[in-house]
Amino acid sequence: MTAAQRWILHADLDAFYASVEQRDHPELRGRPVVVGGQSGRGVVAAASYEARAFGIRSAMPGFRARELCPHAVFLPPNMAHYAAVSAEVHSIFERFTPEIEPLALDEAFLDVTGSLRLFADPLALASALKRAVLEATELRISVGVGPNKLVAKIACTLGKPDGLRIVPPEAVREFLAPLPVRRLPGVGPVLGERLHELGIHTCGELARAEPSVLARVAGNRASGLVALARGEDERPVVPNRIPKSYGEENTFEHDVIDRDRVTAALTAHAEAVARRLRRDDYRGSTITLKAKLARARGTRIARGPGGGREPFYPLVSRSRTLSTPTNDGQRIRDVAVALWDEAALGEPVRLLGVSVSKLEKGSGRQLELFPSARDRLGSTLDAITERFGRGAIGRAVDAPRKITPGRTHKRGDG
Q1: What CATH number does the domain containing 143 carry?
Q2: Where in the sequence numbering do the catalytic residues fall?
């Protein structure tokens, strides 16, 4: 190893939400546990490895998970608790390096290049990190180490569960060559199928492909895909990455078109987004409404390397950019409702979401001599919620009825 050699570590807690539940409730250990997916419209947020043995995976519809394993234990997500455990793990990461880029509650990239002088080699550092997490939290974490983010993440994924895999620079091409092209970031179901039509199935085949040939299916991304297939990735680890957006979305147990129920759901989402914006000291200018139509239009290739097909529900989105950024729930709600009215969909929806993007730090704004009543109200709502819980206070509208947990973005959409 030379002084200039970069070493990136990707750490990913195994079946995080389900593992926390099994840790906290010993009677669940060894049993198939599914977090989320409790209703017919809900989706799986996490599945223990015992549940995965039956084919259950994250993002799978709850009804399908029940078909695969009727005797599984289905639990509601406890995101506040998972976030607290995640913060504890993050503090352990800080013992090894300050260069940490969180990706989600359960995973992060760490640049450990500058920390290796304290350890014999990358293997010793990664082993010490795994032990520290296990001793402090009783949770197992998989670790991949390589010369860049791409290699570290793939090595971590292939080592699960409770894995530790290191790929030195000289072994990168050999490591990637036999892997399917779907392992590469940016190669989704559609592009993967098009590459297969060209006779390209593995990263090794992609690495040898002519960019001019790839351009037929990948356009101007062709040369970048070849570079990834060769293990070339110069992306740095970015500590305290600024989120691109904050969003909340939920799937209705029954299709909805009634405006009162839609308004109630949009109000709840807007307030939740606003609360998180204020917590992290952000304001946003662009407000987006997301709606998934209830009637399927055929099928599409399922997400994930496993393939298969699933119903395709069209997604409709509408956005509006404000003249000044905001973190006020009422303002976000008013825009979201206006976007719903303008969309005039005329048919039921199965999912609604609200997000705020084009963010800026609130601390960078000039302080007002006399803060608005809305600003004071927001901080007051936050204080009451912090003390008494999320159901303690809300806007004067009916709470959304029969909404099942959907995907919630706790740091933004990427």
Answers
A1: 3.40.1170.60
A2: 107
